[in-house]
């Protein structure tokens, strides 16, 4: 118990010294600023119709890409010759 009390008193003395001699930031104000910044960066929830429209566009694009089959290209070194 005495060891705990010594550490507690020493910690308080160090904290008082630092607070008096150095410019310590106010943590409560810093936390409020961070909270305001986080709230400002939040996106508003999107409407369901907008989300469905966006999803439909993506699916249409994917299916159009899947149905696209490019014609095979012949290598330049290999030329097709008629068979005899």
Give a quick summary of the entry.
It contains 3 helices and no strands. It has 84 residues and is an all-alpha fold.
Q: Which characteristics define this entry?
A:
single chain; about 80 residues; mainly alpha; rod-shaped; STMP1
By DSSP, the count of extended strands is: 0
Summarize the amount of helix as a percent range: 55-70%
Number of helices: 3
Structural class by helix and strand composition = mainly alpha
Shape: rod-shaped
Please describe the biggest sheet, giving its number of strands, its sense, and whether it closes into a barrel: none
Give the integer mean of the pLDDT values: 75
Unreliable residue stretches: none
The SSE string, one letter per element, is: HHH
Taking the alpha carbons of the first and last residues, their distance comes to: 106 Å
Query: What Rg do the Cα atoms give?
Result: 35 Å
Approximately how much beta-strand content do the residues carry?
under 5%
Written description of the protein model:
InterPro entries: STMP1. With 84 residues, this protein is mainly α. The protein has helices at residues 2-21, 27-41, 48-67. The chain is rod-shaped and about 75 Å long. The termini are far apart. The mean pLDDT is 75.
What are the SSEs and their pairings?
Elements: H1 2-21, H2 27-41, H3 48-67
């Amino acid at each position: 118990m005495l060891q705990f009390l010594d550490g507690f008193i020493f910690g308080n003395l160090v904290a008082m010294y630092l607070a008096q001699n150095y410019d310590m930031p106010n943590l409560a104000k810093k936390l409020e600023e961070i909270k305001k910044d986080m709230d400002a960066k939040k996106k508003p929830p999107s409407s369901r119709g907008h989300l469905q429209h966006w999803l439909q566009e993506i699916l249409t694009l994917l299916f159009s890409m899947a149905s696209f089959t490019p014609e095979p290209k012949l290598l330049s070194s290999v030329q097709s010759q008629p068979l005899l």
